[in-house]
Amino acid sequence: xxxxxxxxxxxxxxxxxxLSNRIGSISDEISKRLDIEPLKALxxxxxxxxxxxxHNKETGLYLYSDLYVVDEFLFEQNGKTI
Length: 82
Known about the structure:
Layout: H1 12-34, H2 38-46, H3 49-55, H4 66-77
Helix pairs in contact: 1-2, 1-4, 3-4
């Protein structure tokens, strides 16, 4: 019997689950910092360039911490860039 060489972490389904979990944490932190409802924070984040960049592996943003991503989002909302 041949051993399966598939790495479960590289599975697109697993990666999507991890990213969804991260987006929940990011939105929760945005909600706290802006003192807004969590659903509103999620809506704002999903509509942002920061969220788009988080999904784009070429930007490398997915490699950074959730708090860094929150800061990036807040800079974006204030019309600033890092």
